[in-house]
Write a structure and sequence with these properties.
- By secondary structure, the chain is of the alpha/beta class.
- It folds into two domains: 191 residues, 3-Layer(aba) Sandwich (Rossmann fold), CATH 3.40.50.1980; 141 residues, Nitrogenase molybdenum iron protein domain (Rossmann fold), CATH 3.40.50.
- Helix content is 31%, strand content 18%.
- The protein is built from 14 helices and 18 strands.
- The strands form five sheets. A five-stranded parallel beta sheet has the order 6-5-4-9-10, with helices on both faces. It has a five-stranded mixed beta sheet with strand order 14-11-16-17-18, with helices on both faces.
- Strand 9, helix 5 and strand 10 form a beta-alpha-beta unit.
- Helix 8 packs parallel to helix 14.
- The protein is globular.
- The two termini are 37 Å apart.
Length: 369
């Protein structure tokens, strides 16, 4: 097997030279899980700002905080891991994805009712009853939660309602703030928390090292090979204005690492934000590319976009067929994109600089006809 390994977690393989192209790297289909025993069983946090791990005599001390720069006073959660756990409840799609990339879906005994579920293994577990639906935020079925006998329940800072009731079940809650990380590798690194809790630390180190090496190899190739730096605008008109990704957000970092100039990079928001339509239009009308996402039944095309607002047809990206769209109803973006930043990056590199990845097939974001 030909590979590029970058130094990451302590005790992992030594660094070797970058001697293959990004395109061949992204065409590999080897199972990294089969190589897990070659990696360290000790976790080090390198990118995630909301996770801290300390190995002490009484166990593994974990500190969790909200890494969102906009949150000034985030109360930290601290707990000690003394033995592996095997039963968890997830309340968001991304939490589910953290288990999926590690091949640990069997550890999930309960999950909330997702509008779109893509994982074949989770569908099977729901069908055979090894995983149960616990309802939605604000309307959890507490009897079902208790009957599932979870060791921990993962909750989300952005979800309001229902979690207080879960506390009454006497089951420890753990906040999963991975989606609040503003760097792609920081967000993906939260899979190491799952590795710690399940005792599958070698597996978590192996999978993250694979994500890291592919992301950095592609980022380096873009920096080395790209003379053209196209501009890009994001989002579109929603109810209250033009919704964009913030200039300090995860997606803005993806744009930069993929070799593009984000029109709104001077915006200070670390998440999404809504601005006046005319203000965004004036800055983005001449952008070479346009990134949007949304749930849509059927094929989302340029004609579909024009039906939403005729003004879109005057934008350069529209006229030149350089609109990059992710259909949330047809791709597992909510489940897996946060833990597959190398593939999200590759999607945009394919659009911006197709010569770098001539054989790559986009997974989430694609140019629409």
């Amino acid at each position: 097997m030909v590979c590029v390994i970058l130094t990451s977690c302590g005790g992992q393989k030594a660094q070797t030279s970058h001697f293959i192209t990004a395109d061949s790297l992204f065409q590999q289909h080897d199972s990294i899980l089969g190589q897990a025993d070659e990696y360290s069983d000790s976790i080090q946090i390198l990118y995630a700002k909301g996770l801290k791990v300390s190995y002490q005599e009484d166990g593994i001390h974990v500190t969790i905080s909200n890494p969102d720069p906009a949150v000034k006073h985030s109360k930290a959660e601290e707990f000690v891991i003394t033995q592996p756990s095997s039963r968890f409840i997830c309340t968001t799609a991304l939490q589910l994805g953290n288990f999926e990339v590690l091949g640990l879906e069997d550890k999930i005994v309960g999950m909330n009712s997702l509008k779109n579920l893509f994982s074949p293994k989770m569908k099977k577990q729901l069908k055979d009853g090894s995983t149960v639906m616990i309802g939605k935020e604000g309307n959890f079925d507490l009897e079902t939660v208790i009957a599932a006998k979870p060791d921990f329940i993962f909750v989300s800072a952005s979800k309001h309602g229902g979690f207080e009731a879960l506390k009454d079940c006497g089951i420890p809650l753990i906040s999963h703030h991975g989606y609040k990380e503003v760097t792609p590798l920081g967000q993906a690194e939260w899979i190491k928390l799952i590795g710690l809790l399940t005792g599958e630390t070698k597996r978590a180190n192996a999978v993250f090292a694979d994500i890291e090496r592919k992301y950095l190899a592609l980022k380096d190739e873009v920096e080395a090979d790209s003379l053209n730096v196209p501009s890009i605008i994001s989002g579109r008109q929603m109810r209250d204005g033009w919704y964009i990704v913030g200039g300090k957000s995860y997606m803005a970092q993806i744009f930069q690492d993929a070799g593009a100039d984000y029109i709104m990079q001077d915006n200070e928001d670390s998440g999404g934000t809504t601005l006046d339509f005319e203000a965004v239009y004036a800055r983005g009308v001449n952008a070479e590319f346009w990134q949007i996402d949304g749930s849509f039944d059927g094929d989302f095309t340029l004609a579909t976009l024009a039906e939403e607002d005729e003004r879109y047809t005057t934008m350069e990206a529209y006229k030149n067929k350089k609109v990059i769209f992710c259909n949330l109803a047809q791709t597992p973006y909510r489940e897996l994109a946060g833990v597959q930043p190398h593939l999200v990056l590759a999607d945009f590199v394919k659009a911006f600089h197709p010569e770098i990845l001539p054989n790559y097939q986009p997974k989430y974001y694609k140019l629409i006809p």
